[in-house]
Design goal:
This protein is mainly alpha-helical and about 170 residues long. The protein has one domain (about 50-170). The chain has helices spanning about 50-65, 70, 75-85, 90-105, 120-125, 155-170, and strands at about 5-10, 15-20, 35-40, 45. Helix 1 (about 50-65) runs antiparallel to helix 3 (about 75-85).
């Protein structure tokens, strides 16, 4: 039986608290956790739909911010999750994350917390005009559900890089 991780988190900034169970998409649907359902955006198996997916992301982000070894890939995880959920962000936000993910993966950018390219932030400050892009049908073959549960910073880093690359290729 797949390992299940039970988390308590605040969902979508609404102040509502929910319980979510996380596991990989490889879970046996016949087991006791069959109430898990795919996030309608990225496909991660979570409880409570997109709110559950965001709660899982907030939990992982909290871990990245509390431990610099895990936070070494924070910009990648933020961009991957945002780009798998473009309906929940504005046009400008989506463009920012797409360009930064390109910088991180194609130009060997530094994915640590606070290390994004200054030129990118300057370009998006103010009233930058950005063309709207349609959300892709394929949002990558990996989700946050396959990232959580890493037992070491090295494993977390490897999982986040695989996740970000799968989103970038999509």
């Amino acid at each position: 039986m797949p390992k299940v991780c039970r988390l308590f988190a605040s969902a979508s900034g609404k102040g509502r608290r929910i319980w979510i169970d996380t596991m990989t998409r490889m879970a046996d649907p016949a087991n006791e956790n069959s109430a898990l359902a795919p996030c309608p955006r990225c496909g991660a198996l979570v409880r409570d739909g997109v709110e559950g997916c965001f709660a899982l992301f907030y939990e992982m982000s909290g871990h990245e911010y509390s431990d610099p070894a895990y936070g070494a890939v924070n910009l990648l995880s933020v961009d991957a999750h945002a780009l798998q959920h473009p309906e929940d962000h504005g046009v400008k936000n989506n463009a920012f994350h797409l360009i930064r993910l390109c910088w991180l993966l194609e130009h060997n950018g530094d994915p640590r917390i606070g290390q994004g390219p200054g030129w990118l932030q300057q370009e998006f400050d103010g009233n930058a005009e950005v063309q709207a892009l349609e959300p892709p049908l394929n949002r990558g073959g990996m989700t946050i559900a396959e990232v959580v549960g890493a037992t070491s910073p090295e494993e977390h880093t490897e999982r986040v890089y695989r996740w970000a690359r799968s989103v970038w290729k999509a």
